[in-house]
Amino acid sequence: MNKQHQVLVNEELELSLSDKDIKSLDAIKTSDTKYHILHGGKSYNAEIIDSKFNERSYKVKINNNSYNININNSLHQLIKDLGFEIGSSKKVDKITAPMPGLILEINVNIGDEVKENDPLLILEAMKMENVITSPREGIIKSIAIKKGEAVDKNQLLVEFE
Q: Could you report the per-residue pLDDT of 134-147, keeping only the tens digit for each?
């Protein structure tokens, strides 16, 4: 499998590199952060000045010129689209019922400040009690259900500010 990597240099030059392109690079590691590269008959000295691995962001110095480089591949884009990026806040603004059921308990009020994983309510479905927890920190904007109410799948339960 030959993955494609999208490379953004100094937020203006976009490149697409394959695994094959990267493996064919004639580079020799001369220290923990320095490399000697031969490309197109020319010699280059490269040094990694700063690296933020989780953000896929690097500052590289090549022959005394500094470049800011961001690297992404299709998996990184999928992770971003699904909202699972490391360090990013979740963009959930409402909670809907995952299945039809009966509201047994509501643990929050409008205006309450909640933290991620705080229990919001208990939904009984198929003779099981399901604790619905907060997906993020936030303030409760509205509660669309009442204790003892039957709800349908995807029915609005709670909204965040």
A: 988 899 999 999 99
